[in-house]
């Protein structure tokens, strides 16, 4: 009978000891993750690099779910088992202990959810920024080639007319292209807060390059179109004279 009591007391001690150890581990784990789940103060400018940071936090979210599903769930089961032998006062203490532990975990997960939402928005902003920059650079590149084409190398009215169509198409797209560059400049305000000084410099260089190149296009496109139109007119007049000369000789 005494042995039974001893065994029962020992089992009760072990059960409580294990429960306390689990709570200590949960508290230590939660405390150690508080800094990890906070939103980072800096995020790379490139969307690909920013996406990798986001995925690290997604893994942290998965790890947290696994931990809650194992250690925290185990502590809950232990608490439920202990409640059977608790008086009213101990029951309240046990409930308070679990509420505190679960509350810290809940707060941790909420912080992480907020961080993931913030990072997701910043990654999407970077992807949109890069997409708009790519579109702007593509248009600028096409316009630069068209503007730098030497009119003298276009040696027939037909070739000149094809080039004129290209320039007129660029002129039609010019307003949209300028709006896009202005939009890119405005997007910088949302990106700057989380950038390193090096990335801020890179961002500024990207925008300045687009603005400088578009300014060159804006200042030269109309003149180039007029130049091509004059060249077409000249080519046609020359062709007419040649035809007239040929007819005169034939007569």
Question: Keywords, please?
Answer:
about 250 residues; mainly alpha; Methane Monooxygenase Hydroxylase, Chain G, domain 1; 2 domains; about 90% helix; Nesprin-1-like
For the termini, the CA-CA separation is 141 Å
Q: Globular, elongated, flat, extended or rod-shaped: what is the shape?
A: rod-shaped
Poorly predicted regions are none
- Overall number of structural domains: 2
Query: What is the CATH first-level class name of the largest domain?
Result: Mainly Alpha
Tell me the helix content. over 70%
User: What structural class do helix, strand and pairing data support?
Assistant: mainly alpha
What's the total count of β strands? 0
In the CATH hierarchy, the third-tier topology of the largest domain is known as Methane Monooxygenase Hydroxylase, Chain G, domain 1
Q: What's the helix count?
A: 5
Mean pLDDT: 88
> What would you say the CATH architecture of the largest domain is?
Up-down Bundle
Rg, nearest Å: 36 Å
H/E element sequence: HHHHH
Keywords: Coiled coil
InterPro entries: Spectrin/alpha-actinin
Protein name: Nesprin-1-like
Coiled coil: 157-187
